[in-house]
Specification:
mainly alpha, 29 helices, 741 residues, single chain
Amino acid sequence: MDYLKQYRSFINSHYLNDGVRMTVAVLSPVLLFAYYNRLDIGLAMALGALSVGITDNPGPIHHRRNGLVVSNLLVFAVALAGGLSQSIPWLFMIVLPLFCFLFSLIGVFGARATAIGLACMIVLVLQTQHHLAGAAIVYNALYVLLGGAWYVLLSGILYKLRPYKIIQQALGEYVLSVADYLSTKAAFYDPGFSYEKNYSEIVTAQGAVQAQQAVVAEMLFKTRSIVKESTHTGRVLMMVFLDVSDIFEIVMTSHQDYEKLHTYFDETGILLEYRQLINGLAAELDKVGLALQSGRRSTHDTKIDDELLEERKHLQALRADKMDPGNLEGFISLRHILDSIEELATRIRTLHQYTSYDKKLRRKKIEAPDAESFITHQSIDIQLLIDNLSFRSNIFRHSLRISAAALFAYIIAGFLPLGHSYWILLTVVVILKPGYSLTKQRNIERLTGTIAGTAMGASLLYLVDDKTTILIFLTISMIGAYSFMRKSYLVSTILMTLYLLLMFHLLEPQGFTTLLAERILDTAIGSVVAFVSGYLLAPVWEHEQVGVYLGRVLEDVRRYYQLVSAPFTGQPFNKKETVWVRKNSWVSLANLSDAFNRMLSEPRRKQKNAEYLHQLVVAIHMLNSHIATLSYYADSLAPEYISDDYIPLIHSSTAALQQAEQSVNAAGETFVPVKTENAQVRLLDQRVNELVRKRQDEIRAGQMDTATGRLLSTFKSITDQFYFIYRIAGDVERVAGKLHI
């Protein structure tokens, strides 16, 4: 891991900006009102600012603004309801589970709604530490509202000062994720590469790219000034996004038979040189990503150009010395790979120019992009909420589970003689997640982080006694805790525990030892309650719903293949629909891969069909990659590559995928596969073999550059993709038939 790159990326990321913004919003009212001996007002405002800040996820400004306003009003209502009911135990025991259920269920509306629900539950839990009555309850809720309004104001001011900063940071992170994906793809050129290991890694890397792409696309296409190209900066950011998306597509569509390449060329060392070139391009992308985040200009390394020229000469020399009829297809692949590398280098050189924001870039005309190809809409439909009121819904089960666990934790806390027993309830609310694997991970990280943070706090207070120094460490730990809140829960928990201990020490220095013990004990009790509730009211186990993910991805990949293969038989190529279906196919595969990885974190007895599912994830990724490569040719197909000879191969591959769908989806439509004779499937092979024999004769005669060679180069690359898809579709059908879902 490149720790310097990780460090530079983090200090220029929106994560650190979020941390600083939240720290200022939370700490400033505390310090201000502490100065006037009204710490109670400062702490209430800090709670309002913190709870609203939790919901401030990256996104279009109007989405962020609307989310902040809604969350502030809901937090105020919850603080008021919690304050009025907390003094009456039986009433609070009704309000607590009811609110936990409702604010967990709204998670069906997406990540922002989930964050709003969590903020409301945290405010509700923290009301249990107060013992207010009468008008004091209303005043406390108003102070919370005022704190939230202060955060909204601060966030708005910062956006006005630097309106493009968060988009630049997110765009930089997108570029860095593409660089990681490119580096992962380079591993296929290692002599000892492993198909299963490398494909597992590339599925993960590709999922990360798609997630970042979705975040940036939403910001760009839903920000009016950028879509209308009304500012130079907005125009440049749009061009960067489109070019990076093209680079991502080039990498996806540059798929080869790597096993054969290693068989042909491992001894020559050219594949390792290709890997070095690809890693060099990934390093260039890293420079672009960091430059976008920091606002500095990046420069192109001219050594890349020199290395490409040398590599072209090396390939020509190797071709003249080593090419024979037996490795002809390998040299065709090498040339295509080098062509793709050179195209990537050209586009990356352009990205370096974009980081200058030079006014001359305005001269470049960009086509209006199709936003639907990149973004997914999340509508607030009450019917979606109603549809999830079922035990078949995982979010419904989660809502019931967190309601029951919160009530149980509240009852336990009432019997314990601890000064901060609400930490038990807070631990339950924060740890419990809809999925078993994430809850398990959060549980471990919460307990580990609390112990580590407590140890750090004890050590620091043993060594430092000066209040100003402690306040400085408190501020630094606050910034770190909020910065890592969306990036690393473990680190965030460590730093949050540290700053809470430092804060309570400043408030009550005499009871610090007791505070340490309470923090660990309360967290441990909360973790146990969360763990037990996860079993008593179990979630929908992944093996129970993996069939849905698998059926969806098989349907999407089949539709993708049908659209891409259509032009080769003379039908028109619908590029817009193909891009949309391709996106669905990759997203469906990412969902299947995530579900499979979550299943591996569940109890072993729940890990059903794990071996077959892993094979299918790898096979479907290979299938998508070969279809993506085929789409590269379909986009600008010459007439000489159109033929009815593709039809038997297309029908056979489609039939295999439909049969696989039926195997995993017993409730689906009954399908009777169309049998295709082997001789029909091999029609393309016969044409290729004829061209190969003709080309071999030309090579023996010393004719290196001929029309036959150029025709064969493209035609064989196309037919190779069709046959790859045919074989993999058969493997998918065979493995899917072994599943028992």
